[in-house]
Amino acid sequence: MKSEDLLANTTRLGPVHLRVIDIPAALPLWRDVIGLAVLANDGGTADLGVDGKSLIVLHAGATTALPPKSRDLFHVAVHVTTRKELARVAARLGAARVKHGAQDHLVSESLYASDLSGNGIEICFDTPDRFASSTVTADGSVSLLARDGSAHSGLEPLDLDRLLLELDTADGIEAPLAADAFIGHIHMRARSPETLMAFYLGVLGFKPHIQSTSFGLFDCGTDERRHMVAFNIWAGAELTEPPPGSAGLEHFTAVLPSQEDMAAVAQRLRHANVPARQTERTLDVSDPEGNRLRMMAAGD
């Protein structure tokens, strides 16, 4: 692919819109535990974020929770910029007795939970300074090498007790989340990731990262953020379609540096005969499995 057909490295993810069964029931987790402030709430939608910046928009009206192995959202990842902030979220999850998991991916450390509507949530702290290299073995599996020479699967459990040592007695754990938190990536379950990658790479212009059938993960991004949009096939034959009226992904947002960048994507969509709806400020498109993406220029 020619460089002019690639998304700019400064492309980032904007607000992620999620369907939920009931906004008042969803807010205690998203607001009090995850730590997002309510920026607006009209009853039908609730805009949540940090320091006035929208990160998550909840849409009421789902009639059933998203089943655990549905093709749709796996999780949306809110990234924090310090390990202490990750520890604060871990402490709030524990204090609220919210069921959660924790993994050490070597390139990041992550906490996992789900809201009452089954929408997966990751709180992620990037740790690129620990990572040296990755290799794909003959069977297609991925092996990670740390800077100290140790090998990692990227799926080791995160030591929560050690993480909580980041906090001292003077550190409060109460919300809100730090003002520099941001949406770092979004991860879906997929039926045909190869077809999806042909769209995200060949049409939209993302760059490939991990493309492994044996590992079950396909992702893409930019040189600046390689893991931005991801798909997994871990549910295998148990993967089902989300039932009508279920919670899950309404749409996610990609923010491009300029209107010229957005026009270039629109042109590639036309050349690929992919239906899209364009307004003066937005470009709405669905990927081959129906996940909806809104592209917009920075400043809009």
**Biggest β-sheet: strands ordered side by side in the sheet:** 12-6-7-8-5-13-16-15-14
Order of helical and strand elements: EHEEEEHEEEEEEEHEHEEEEHEEE
Calculate the terminal CA-CA distance, rounded to whole Å. Answer: 28 Å
- What's the pLDDT, averaged over the residues? 95
CATH topology descriptor: 2,3-Dihydroxybiphenyl 1,2-Dioxygenase, domain 1
State the helicity in percent bands. 10-25%
CATH superfamily: 2,3-Dihydroxybiphenyl 1,2-Dioxygenase, domain 1
CATH architecture: Roll
GO molecular function: catechol 2,3-dioxygenase activity
Protein name: Putative Catechol-2,3-dioxygenase
EC number: 1.13.11.2
Keywords: Dioxygenase, Oxidoreductase
Written description of the protein model:
It is a single chain. The protein has 300 residues and is an alpha+beta fold. The chain has a single domain, classed as Roll (2,3-Dihydroxybiphenyl 1,2-Dioxygenase, domain 1), CATH 3.10.180.10. The protein has five helices and 20 strands. It has helices spanning 23-34, 83-95, 160-164, 193-204, 259-271, and strands at residues 12-19, 37-41, 45-50, 53-59, 73-80, 101-104, 108-114, 120-126, 131-136, 142-146, 151-152, 156-157, 182-189, 207-212, 217-221, 229-232, 248-256, 276-278, 282-286, 292-297. It has a nine-stranded mixed β-sheet with strand order 12-6-7-8-5-13-16-15-14. Strand 9 (131-136) and strand 10 form a beta hairpin. The longest helix is centred in the first third of the chain and has 13 residues, at 83-95. The radius of gyration is 19 Å and the shape is globular. The relative contact order is 0.20. The model has no long low-confidence stretch (mean pLDDT 95).
